[in-house]
Amino acid sequence: xxxIRELVNAIAQREGVEAAxxxxxxxxLIDGRTTGSDAEPLAALTPGIVAAARDFGSSxxxxxxxxxxxxxxxxxxxxxxxxxxxLLLVLVHxxxxxxxxxxxxxxxxxxxxxxx
Length: 116
What we know:
Shape: globular
Order of helices and strands: HEEHEEEHH
Structural class: alpha+beta
Number of helices: 4
Strand content: 25-35%
Largest sheet: 5 strands, antiparallel
Number of domains: 1
CATH superfamily: Dynein light chain 2a, cytoplasmic
Helix content: 40-55%
CATH topology: Beta-Lactamase
CATH architecture: 2-Layer Sandwich
């Protein structure tokens, strides 16, 4: 079975991925690989985004949070709930095929969660 580090490296090596970070719901870094960004501040800021998205989903009666996609001028941020204790944060270059990445994360979420 692959390790968390191997998972992070596999995601980070995809074309267009600038960061792959596994973190706890408390914002503490579990493992991460980035190019040009520091993983710890990104991990620390993530729980606030997740909390707001959960509150929104609850108010809109959408159920439990699965993923969040944020689009910025210089790229896309994917946040995925892996387990009750872990999240996956992926920063993607704006020209990357994010659709394929989202599909793969969704399709393999159970397997990824079993690694964490």
